[in-house]
Amino acid sequence: MTDTPHLVLVDGSGFIFRAFHALPPMTSPEGVPVNAVYGFTTMLARLLREHAGTHLAVLFDASRQTFRSEIYPQYKAHRPDPPEDLRPQFSLIRDATQAFGVPGIELPGWEADDLIASYATAIRAAGGTCTIVSSDKDLMQLVGPGVSMLDPIRQTPIGPTEVEAKFGVPPDKVAEVQALMGDPTDNVPGVPGIGPKTASALINEYGTLDKVLASAPDMKKSKRRDMLVEHAQAARVSLQLVTLARDIPLPVPLEELATREPDTAVLAEWLALMGFRSVLTRMGMGHAAGAQLHRAARANAHASANGTTLAPQATPAAAPSVAEAVTSAPYTGYDTVRTAEALQTWVTRAQEVGVCAVDTETTGLDPLTASLLGFSLSSTPGKACYVPLRHEGMLDTPTGDQLDPQVALDILRPLLEDRSVLKIFHNAKFDLLVLNTAGIPHGTIGPVDDTMLLSYSQSAGLHGQGMDELAALHLQHTPITYDSVTGTGRARIPFAQVAVEKATEYAAEDADVTLRLWHVLRPTLRTQQALALYEQIERPLGPVLADMELYGIAVDRAELARLSDDFEARMKDMEQGIYEAAGREFTISSPKQLGEILFDEMALKGGRRGKAGAWGTDSSVLQDLADQGHDLPVRVLEWRQLAKLKSTYTDALLRQTSTQSRVHTSFQMAITTTGRLSSSDPNLQNIPVRTEEGTRIRRAFVAPPGRRLISADYSQIELRLLAHVAGIPALREAFALGQDIHARTASEVFGVPLEGMDPLTRRRAKAINFGIIYGISAFGLGRQLGIPAGEAKAYIDAYFARYPGIRDYMERVKEEARTQGYVLTPFGRRCYVPGIAEKSAARRQYAERQAINAPLQGGAADIIKRAMVRLPDALRAAGLESARMVLQVHDELLFEADEAQADAVAAQARTIMEAAAQLCVPLVVETGIGQNWAEAH
């Protein structure tokens, strides 16, 4: 320490919110909101230039749960979650402190204010002075000899005079005034009816809070006296809540807070990545230097180990060692944790590091019913452990000691709930639901990163997103397979019976691989320009989907049983007609027997044999034969349709319905190329929309008594996106005017007036409109409309002649796919199209159709995901607590709510969904309310 140390303490948490609300919206080059980051950065740069002390630190809140929550559980409990545009900025502000070379300090269980109070006390004890950079009223109790404050926005000092002017008492009495008045912002109760003037007058008259409360019974009878007597205990609790702790252990010693010049290369690189050119210029680094360092950052992105997480700051010297460990540390030597003490050691280590990969092992693949067999942890590449909980063992392989599951979860819980530690999962939604089932609510776990979604946000369609595939691709490592541990076929054993030592090798490696993947994939979000997509859509969507899966949707089992019986009876009737058309009986569900009848016995043309020599009889083959006028393929297609509906929906839904008559589908987040969600167990995405059978199946999805289902469906969203991205004036005008887009198209293309247009002409225009989105061919359009391919080609040519911008768009997108290997949605999602370079013309043309459609379908997926992320908070804020989002199917969201709130829920859903994106044409959402899905839809 120097002879006269001067410590500058920055209230990072307090400044974040002030800057966010004080500055207009701003975004980085990657599209991430950064107004609070920019405000913090300029404040820190100015501080270093004008107010630098001998020592400096930035203090952050680690979590909402502190010792005050134990004293008074309602403390800050009512505070809403941060605004969506602020959430990704927390981690970036921590990055800023690291870039400036300033210690960023946080401590679980304590607020930033307590850290500030303790550091201020410590520097005064060391003979130094302290400046607190904040305007937070709660910190004003610290002002006094050697301790002052500085308002970071106004750049004005706050001393004892300013504090007394605000509170009416000296700084050392501020906490007692606050205890009397309470604070609704933090949910500090205080004494009802006591405002700031009364509180300060009482403290000035009696001296202390205890003396005020002791004197209250003898005061003149009044409402104020009654309140003081009745709420005396609340006032005492309030004093405990508002009084700052001044003696907590300092996480970083004072001597390590010595001010140092920032590494200009590191700082310039970070400022350039953020797009803060004005700060670069003010600091004398210049645009050229920033640009050069930005290019260097892209080339060396792999060396960055911390990304933009909530992890504690690492010194620049530590990064290469972590990066080296990611690629060189062996995948062996993992620990089996069998005692509470050993598990606590791993948890403590994770809290010190600030990052922890977590993986669970279960008895099954349904996270809502599977039991937790064990879990694994890893905070350092190459070091991981497995905690077995319910392994059964066998006679020749006893399990050895295992922790009681509840004891293990109680030790793990603080780590999972610690807001200062980033938890990393692969397919986080699954593990979070498993932990929820085990007794740790998924909503309490955070913050969370998901390596599956980190990869998917950058490489949808390029490859699979499974952990093993990503490990081979990014780590050049082949993980131990599940089959090698459990066996295959009849020899397979449950994971619970796998020897614990063998289970440790497999399970701990999963956590280790997940951590290493995070180190590789997190930094590339920026270089791949996928940070905004991940932070604003994919990552926050996971908890929303988890809630939907947990809640499920009610079904009418009796209606499902009636449907199943009806489908079976109709299939039996169809079978007789099929046998007559075939000339004999056969097993209709057997592709081999059907192929022999069609191509050997009936000698129909167009058959193709597979590699095994059997005739192909998939739906495309049968549809081609049906288009040629053959009766048997038509009948088989109809029979297959009913059989699929029966097996996939009516029978399966009866099997999959929980005891509460609810179905809990599983949403797959990283399957499609375009970003669309898919669902399984059951798959609710493929219920026919325009058929009687599809309507009847939807009728079986119901609302419980007193509740209603609300459907909110984007109207023609892909056509609207086409009008937006292709820039077609006529289509834009039609949507802007709310015209019938298909009638308008028919009028434009076929030269017929809008008034009195016949339905057939409109139907043809509709088929072209939707077909163009999918790159439809003349043959496909002709088959759909039942006209010759030549006539269909004339329609398509007329369409492109009227709307040449659409053809230009299609050619442009195909060229982008050929050049880059991917296309972009309007919101920056990369949709890879690997088949665009295929030598086979048929496969290449299919890929071209994919490329044309991906920006539209992917754009629609981005929009509805944006809405889904915003809707839960918006519904709660509107007082619609009864509303639950239960399903997402393509462009439709389905809600369940109390009947009395159904109309309001529909209106709020429409408002949020229509505002989810700003296009050059309006987004329109159609809503409906019903007792079942068919009525609402």
Automatic annotation (TrEMBL):
<dbReference type="GO" id="GO:0008408">
    <property type="term" value="F:3'-5' exonuclease activity"/>
</dbReference>
<dbReference type="InterPro" id="IPR036279">
    <property type="entry name" value="5-3_exonuclease_C_sf"/>
</dbReference>
<keyword id="KW-0227">DNA damage</keyword>
<keyword id="KW-0238">DNA-binding</keyword>
<comment type="similarity">
    <text>Belongs to the DNA polymerase type-A family.</text>
</comment>
<dbReference type="InterPro" id="IPR012337">
    <property type="entry name" value="RNaseH-like_sf"/>
</dbReference>
<dbReference type="Pfam" id="PF01367">
    <property type="entry name" value="5_3_exonuc"/>
</dbReference>
<protein>
    <recommendedName>
        <fullName>DNA polymerase I</fullName>
        <ecNumber>2.7.7.7</ecNumber>
    </recommendedName>
</protein>
<dbReference type="InterPro" id="IPR043502">
    <property type="entry name" value="DNA/RNA_pol_sf"/>
</dbReference>
<dbReference type="Pfam" id="PF02739">
    <property type="entry name" value="5_3_exonuc_N"/>
</dbReference>
<keyword id="KW-0540">Nuclease</keyword>
<feature type="domain" description="DNA-directed DNA polymerase family A palm">
    <location>
        <begin position="694"/>
        <end position="901"/>
    </location>
</feature>
<comment type="function">
    <text>In addition to polymerase activity, this DNA polymerase exhibits 3'-5' and 5'-3' exonuclease activity.</text>
</comment>
<comment type="subunit">
    <text>Single-chain monomer with multiple functions.</text>
</comment>
<dbReference type="Pfam" id="PF01612">
    <property type="entry name" value="DNA_pol_A_exo1"/>
</dbReference>
<dbReference type="InterPro" id="IPR020046">
    <property type="entry name" value="5-3_exonucl_a-hlix_arch_N"/>
</dbReference>
<dbReference type="GO" id="GO:0006302">
    <property type="term" value="P:double-strand break repair"/>
</dbReference>
<keyword id="KW-0808">Transferase</keyword>
<dbReference type="GO" id="GO:0006261">
    <property type="term" value="P:DNA-templated DNA replication"/>
</dbReference>
<dbReference type="InterPro" id="IPR036397">
    <property type="entry name" value="RNaseH_sf"/>
</dbReference>
<dbReference type="Pfam" id="PF00476">
    <property type="entry name" value="DNA_pol_A"/>
</dbReference>
<keyword id="KW-0378">Hydrolase</keyword>
<dbReference type="InterPro" id="IPR002562">
    <property type="entry name" value="3'-5'_exonuclease_dom"/>
</dbReference>
<keyword id="KW-0548">Nucleotidyltransferase</keyword>
<keyword id="KW-0239">DNA-directed DNA polymerase</keyword>
<dbReference type="InterPro" id="IPR008918">
    <property type="entry name" value="HhH2"/>
</dbReference>
<keyword id="KW-0235">DNA replication</keyword>
<keyword id="KW-0269">Exonuclease</keyword>
<dbReference type="InterPro" id="IPR019760">
    <property type="entry name" value="DNA-dir_DNA_pol_A_CS"/>
</dbReference>
<feature type="domain" description="5'-3' exonuclease">
    <location>
        <begin position="5"/>
        <end position="260"/>
    </location>
</feature>
<dbReference type="InterPro" id="IPR020045">
    <property type="entry name" value="DNA_polI_H3TH"/>
</dbReference>
<dbReference type="InterPro" id="IPR018320">
    <property type="entry name" value="DNA_polymerase_1"/>
</dbReference>
<dbReference type="InterPro" id="IPR002421">
    <property type="entry name" value="5-3_exonuclease"/>
</dbReference>
<dbReference type="GO" id="GO:0008409">
    <property type="term" value="F:5'-3' exonuclease activity"/>
</dbReference>
<feature type="domain" description="3'-5' exonuclease">
    <location>
        <begin position="334"/>
        <end position="526"/>
    </location>
</feature>
<dbReference type="GO" id="GO:0003887">
    <property type="term" value="F:DNA-directed DNA polymerase activity"/>
</dbReference>
<dbReference type="InterPro" id="IPR001098">
    <property type="entry name" value="DNA-dir_DNA_pol_A_palm_dom"/>
</dbReference>
<keyword id="KW-0234">DNA repair</keyword>
<dbReference type="GO" id="GO:0003677">
    <property type="term" value="F:DNA binding"/>
</dbReference>
<dbReference type="InterPro" id="IPR029060">
    <property type="entry name" value="PIN-like_dom_sf"/>
</dbReference>
<dbReference type="InterPro" id="IPR002298">
    <property type="entry name" value="DNA_polymerase_A"/>
</dbReference>
